[in-house]
Design brief:
Blueprint lengths: L17 H7 L5 H7 L7 H10 L6 H4 L10 H6 L23 E3 L2 E2 L5 E5 L29 H9 L5 E5 L8 H12 L6 E5 L2 H4 L6 H9 L3 E6 L10 H11 L3 E7 L8 H13 L3 E6 L14 H14 L7 E4 L8 E2 L2
Parallel strand pairs: 3-4, 4-5, 5-6, 6-7, 7-8, 8-9
Antiparallel strand pairs: 1-2, 2-3, 9-10
Length: about 350
């Protein structure tokens, strides 16, 4: 995979609605995925069965970065439904972070001091097989701005909250108009100072980053922080590099968080190359997460001690600002737990 860290002359100039078309054209049929990537037919039935439990979604832009006829491609492993998802494992649960206990209003979770999280949508542009919310009851959460009012009133009452995280699903699957309405309502709450958008779309659906989106975020009273999610350097290429550079060049703070995944990035070489590509674009490597123990993802888990050794190796290879914090989220804890 060739690295591309320069913004093309056509970056942000795609016609309105192009990203919605890209999302609509995403691959959702495991058979089609296997055919397009020349994968073994033996993967078809396991993929079909696993996708019945947690559907396949992968944009064609992301598909283009996956090596054909390579069942062990690190990007493929993140999105291909497999028989391993049906294997039960001790201490792996449907709600590994006990988020049901943190719900203070419809769609509103409060885990940490000074911050709250809005589950803005149940939709993603890509279904990562290790997703800790793969079993989240999205049908119980608000779907329109009027339905968000109980959450907004809860935020208004709690003056200790200064930052709201927009999560999901992926908040950037909302249209610019809906996202702007939500941000304007949040900006009307005087004690809020920041919005933090957790999104994978600049990585997997790069044409989502357009001038209108950036302009809306820059014009808000609230300081916007973008947290993207890339796990492997092969994701940071071509139009993805363009989208990240556009966000950074606009003056927005852009952070990356990764999940430590067996067979994907459990290598010092891979993690070092990922950090290098990120910092070359001005993106800060923020967190390396220990896997959340969600049902269906046990085959991705890497031992904590191995993760510690990887971080130590990164410290020898990289400047300090390029080494992510190795952390784990534990139910009931009031902050991420450092694992070093």
């Amino acid at each position: 995979m060739n690295e591309n860290t320069s913004v093309s002359s056509t970056a942000l100039e795609s016609d309105a609605g192009s990203w919605q078309r890209s999302l609509a054209q995403a691959i959702r049929d495991p058979n089609e995925l296997i055919r397009l990537l020349d994968l073994p037919d033996s993967l078809r039935e396991p993929a079909r069965r696993a996708a019945e439990q947690f559907g396949l979604v992968v944009p064609r832009s992301y598909l283009a970065r996956i090596e054909r006829a390579c069942p062990h491609d690190p990007l493929l492993l993140q999105i291909l439904p497999t028989a391993s998802e049906a294997h039960g494992a001790e201490r792996f649960t449907d709600d590994p972070l006990a988020e049901s206990e943190c719900r203070v209003a419809p769609g509103l979770l409060k885990k940490y001091a000074g911050r709250a999280l809005l589950v803005t949508t149940g939709t993603c542009a890509i279904n990562c097989r290790y997703c800790f919310r793969r079993n989240y009851p999205y049908g119980l959460e608000p779907s329109g701005l009027d339905e968000w009012e109980p959450a907004m009133r809860a935020l208004e009452r709690d003056e200790s909250i200064h930052e709201v995280l927009l999560s999901g699903g992926d908040p950037l699957v909302l249209s610019n108009a809906r996202l702007e309405s939500l941000c304007e309502r949040l900006a009307s709450i005087e004690h809020l100072a920041r919005i933090r958008i957790h999104t994978r779309l600049p990585i997997v659906l790069p044409d989502r980053v357009d001038e209108e989106l950036i302009g809306m975020l820059k014009s808000s009273r609230l300081t916007a922080i973008i947290v993207v999610h890339a796990n492997h350097p092969n994701e940071i290429a071509f139009d993805c590099a363009d989208s990240l550079k556009a966000l950074v060049d606009s003056g927005l703070t852009v952070l990356n968080q990764s999940v430590l995944l067996r067979g994907v990035n459990d290598s010092a070489d891979v993690l070092a190359q990922l950090s290098e590509r990120l910092v070359n674009l001005g993106v800060i490597p923020y967190y390396l997460h220990q896997l959340d123990r969600v049902t269906g993802a046990a085959h991705f888990e890497v031992p904590v001690e191995q993760g510690r050794l990887l971080i130590e190796e990164l410290r020898h290879r990289l400047p300090g600002y390029a080494v992510p914090q190795y952390v784990q989220e534990r139910p009931g804890e009031l902050h991420k737990t450092p694992l070093l």
